[in-house]
């Protein structure tokens, strides 16, 4: 079966999807850099190249930089190896894949040793005398910055939440909160609000970011994101959704797929319609519910392990 090879943007512009306050966020982050020993950038492993805020590298590169590709549970181990090779080609070698939701936190346990190694490998400038290590956690919205901080606290301090976690992008609103995550060695992190590049000019990048939940769904439209997700799944021949929703076959028609999802999940709405034989009651699939369900399932890994880049 032939599927779409390109996604139709339907004339939509991406710029309006990015909240204005985020430009101020970078300035605030930059202003705190003097008191920081290392920058930890958290990004979504499903989009290892797209959507990273270039300002994190350009503006904060005066400090050692560690890239954490989080939500690694949502991609395959083979893809992780491939991504490491691709990043190494761009001279980016300080990279760790993390899964902050995993109970034992095996991957997150690598973070403190890696941070210490990086700090020891570079001059601390005027912070030479400072007893504790100060780490700034940066990243675009909803990639798991707060989850990482909470996991670090659990591992190293046996303590619970220090930072709010949410499925909606933009949960961390306060500008820069200092949180202790380890006593030996003493490490504090600065939690920062998610900051997106002020303008993303490539439509495809905007859609990848939206599919991973880093942009508020309603700004883009859930049906549009669901259509992009369907396009991606078909393009990479990942047909797990067919089995998951008991569809008769794979399809590139989002409305057909959403209709099946709604019917499969028993989500139809009664509507009255006036016909030639009088008023009749019809059952209309709840397309909004279906689009939301399709995205939610993908984001929680139920539709397979997919790298969007
Ligand atoms: N599958 C998976 N989900 C994760 C992981 N880490 C975080 N999440 C989920 O991703 C969502 C966002 O997590 P947060 O920790 O609030 O992200 P954040 O970057 O602090 O978000 P902002 O406050 O918007 O900047 C939540 O629903 C988390 O449960 C992970 O490693 N794997």
Globular, elongated, flat, extended or rod-shaped: what is the shape? elongated
Return the average pLDDT rounded to an integer.
86
In terms of structural class, how would the helical and strand content be classed? alpha/beta
Cofactors and ligands present? guanosine-5'-triphosphate
How is the main sheet built?
Answer: 6 strands, mixed
Cα gyration radius (Å): 22 Å
Count up the helices: 11
List the helices and strands and how they pair.
Blueprint: H1 21-31, E1 38-44, H2 54-58, E2 65-70, H3 77-89, E3 95-97, H4 111-120, E4 133-138, H5 145-157, E5 177-183, E6 186-191, H6 203-211, H7 217-220, H8 222-235, H9 240-244, H10 254-264, E7 268-275, E8 278-285, H11 287-299
Guanosine-5'-triphosphate binds next to α5.
Task: Explain what you see.
It is a single chain. The protein is an alpha/beta fold and 309 residues long. The chain folds into two domains: 17-191, P-loop containing nucleotide triphosphate hydrolases (Rossmann fold, 3-Layer(aba) Sandwich); 221-299, Conserved Hypothetical Protein Ylqf, Chain: A, domain 2 (Orthogonal Bundle). The chain has eleven helices and eight strands. A six-stranded mixed beta sheet has the order 3-2-1-4-6-5, with helices on both faces. Strands 7-8 form a two-stranded antiparallel ribbon. Helix 3 (77-89) links the parallel strand 2 (65-70) and strand 3 (95-97). The longest helix has 14 residues, at 222-235. The mean pLDDT is 86. It comes from Eptatretus burgeri (Inshore hagfish). This is Mitochondrial GTPase 1. Belongs to the TRAFAC class YlqF/YawG GTPase family. MTG1 subfamily. One of its GO terms (molecular function) is GTPase activity.
């Amino acid at each position: 079966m032939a599927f779409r090879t390109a996604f139709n943007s339907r004339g939509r512009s991406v710029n309006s999807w990015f909240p204005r306050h985020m430009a101020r966020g970078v300035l605030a982050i930059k202003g705190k850099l003097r008191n920081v020993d290392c920058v930890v950038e958290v990004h979504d492993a499903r989009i290892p190249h797209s959507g990273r805020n270039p300002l994190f590298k350009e503006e904060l590169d005066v400090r050692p930089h560690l890239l954490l590709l989080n939500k690694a549970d949502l991609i395959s181990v083979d893809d992780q190896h491939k991504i490491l090779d691709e990043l190494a080609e761009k001279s980016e070698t300080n990279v760790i894949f993390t899964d902050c939701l995993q109970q034992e936190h095996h991957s997150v346990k690598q973070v403190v040793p890696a941070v210490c190694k990086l700090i020891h490998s570079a001059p601390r400038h005027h912070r030479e005398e400072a007893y504790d290590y100060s780490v700034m956690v940066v990243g675009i919205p909803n990639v798991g910055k707060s989850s990482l901080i909470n996991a670090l606290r659990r591992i190293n301090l046996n303590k619970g939440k220090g930072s709010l976690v949410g499925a909606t992008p933009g949960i961390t609103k306060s500008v820069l909160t200092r949180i202790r995550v380890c006593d030996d060695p003493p490490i504090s992190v600065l939690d920062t609000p998610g900051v997106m590049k002020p303008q993303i000019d490539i439509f495809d990048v905007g859609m990848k970011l939206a599919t991973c939940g880093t942009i508020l769904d309603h700004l883009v439209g859930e049906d549009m994101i669901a259509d992009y997700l369907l396009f991606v799944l078909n393009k990479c021949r990942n047909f797990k959704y067919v089995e998951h929703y008991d569809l008769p076959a794979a399809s590139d028609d989002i409305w057909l797929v959403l209709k099946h999802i709604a019917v499969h999940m028993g989500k139809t709405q009664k509507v009255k319609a006036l016909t030639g034989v009088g008023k009749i009651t019809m059952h209309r699939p709840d397309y909004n519910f279906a689009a939301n369900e399709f995205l939610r399932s993908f984001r929680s890994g139920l539709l397979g392990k997919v790298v969007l880049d």
